[in-house]
Write a sequence for this structure.
């Protein structure tokens, strides 16, 4: 019984509970980074791969040495190590787009994972539910939607705005054989000007920031930059004031992210409910938003413009949209079809004439052959709807391999239990990593 659906609720911890969860969040981040360093060390020094079981032994040692590690519930620590193991397995999986595991930065959201057995969930009354977490006790949350299944795991997180609890539940989702509206096909064109244009003429977009918010964010970021320069000059630690500014930036960015996610999921929900097939251009967002910086010997051109375009692409949440569609399609039976992206914006959807002069402007398409005039994005969406499915299936990983030199894969090998080999000292957690 694996978790096959996610549920996220707004958590309302008391001040004391929030303080403890914050401290645990930082411990989890430390543990993840330390365990990552240890795995890298073990591989570089002895060509051995540490698995979860071996690392759990080191975690037990570390719990004896430090009170603040021991304060974190043991199951949460083990869950963090399992997350790292999954990150490695994703990296080794050629079908998976993930790259090598990286360190968790202080600026990413805090999260504390729990296995399903460690938490209990019940409903208090109509608006409130309660979850019992190890060591912190009962915490209330807003019962904003039904749970709809058995809780398999839980994650408590803080995204800069609020605390949330997410449950992975086994809801027994079965993808229907056929969609409720067979034959309904829609093409979607993703753009920078308008986020999403549909082949039936609908256009969906919303802005995720207000002008005031953008100004505020720019002000805060320049302030953070000044503080960082001053800190470096003095060689001091990050000040409490700088921390506050950082938290304010995180808070504003989290708000923007929440709006984007809301929009993307709303659209995905609609498209999947109404159509048996959704056709999209096959885009490699990662490659498209690569920097134009170039190298010192061969500096790139139009670097600032490209950076602006990259920001615009990422701001629209194209990648998130694909993920939301795939997730939603599981419950509606919608087929997500990827088509080749080439020339969809230059081809006339009426006569098929393809020329780059077919665009009157960014927004208006006018065919130089038959004179067909339409909104450029809708014209492209119709082309996407009528295009045949792209033949060669490739993953993001394949494209990345082509575009970028990657380190040699770190293949699975026999797991070591820390007994050491040859003349090397035995592997101990303190030998391989330094607590920060
Ligand atoms: Zn034409």
């Amino acid at each position: 019984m694996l978790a096959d659906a996610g549920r996220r609720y707004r958590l309302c911890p008391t001040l004391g509970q929030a303080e403890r969860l914050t401290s645990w969040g930082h411990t989890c981040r430390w543990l993840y980074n330390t365990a990552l360093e240890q795995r890298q060390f073990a591989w570089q020094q002895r060509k051995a791969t540490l698995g979860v079981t071996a690392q759990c032994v080191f975690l037990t040692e570390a719990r004896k040495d430090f009170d603040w590690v021991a304060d974190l519930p043991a199951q949460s620590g083990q869950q963090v190590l399992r997350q790292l193991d999954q990150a490695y397995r994703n990296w080794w999986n050629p079908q998976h787009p993930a790259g090598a595991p990286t360190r968790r930065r202080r600026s990413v959201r805090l999260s504390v994972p729990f296995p399903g057995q460690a938490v209990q969930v019940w409903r208090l009354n109509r608006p409130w539910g309660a979850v019992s977490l190890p060591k912190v006790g009962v915490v209330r949350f807003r019962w904003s939607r039904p749970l709809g299944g058995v809780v398999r795991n839980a994650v408590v997180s803080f995204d800069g705005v609020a605390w949330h609890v997410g449950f992975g539940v086994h809801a027994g989702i079965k993808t229907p054989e056929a969609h409720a509206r067979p034959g309904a096909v829609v093409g979607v064109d993703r753009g920078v000007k308008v986020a999403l244009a549909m082949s039936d003429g609908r256009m969906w977009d919303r802005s995720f920031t207000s002008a005031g918010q953008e100004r505020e964010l720019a002000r805060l970021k320049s302030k953070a930059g000044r503080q960082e320069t001053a800190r470096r000059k003095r060689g001091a630690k990050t000040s409490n004031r700088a921390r506050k500014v950082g938290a304010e930036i995180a808070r504003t960015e989290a708000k923007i992210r929440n709006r984007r996610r809301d929009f993307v999921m709303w659209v995905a929900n609609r498209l999947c409910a109404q159509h048996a097939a959704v056709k999209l251009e096959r885009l490699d967002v990662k490659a498209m938003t690569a920097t134009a910086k170039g190298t010192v010997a061969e500096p790139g051109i139009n670097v600032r413009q490209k950076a602006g375009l990259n920001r615009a692409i990422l701001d629209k949440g194209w990648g998130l949209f694909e993920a939301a569609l795939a997730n939603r399609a599981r419950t509606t039976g919608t087929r997500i079809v990827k088509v080749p992206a080439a020339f969809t914006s230059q081809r006339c959807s009426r006569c098929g004439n393809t020329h780059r002069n077919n665009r009157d402007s960014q927004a208006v398409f006018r065919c130089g052959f038959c004179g067909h005039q339409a909104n450029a994005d809708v014209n492209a969406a119709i082309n996407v709807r009528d295009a045949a499915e792209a033949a060669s299936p490739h993953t993001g990983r394949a494209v990345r391999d082509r575009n970028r030199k990657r380190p040699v894969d770190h293949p699975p090998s026999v797991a070591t239990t820390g007994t050491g080999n040859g003349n090397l000292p035995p592997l101990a957690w303190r030998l391989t990593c330094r607590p920060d």
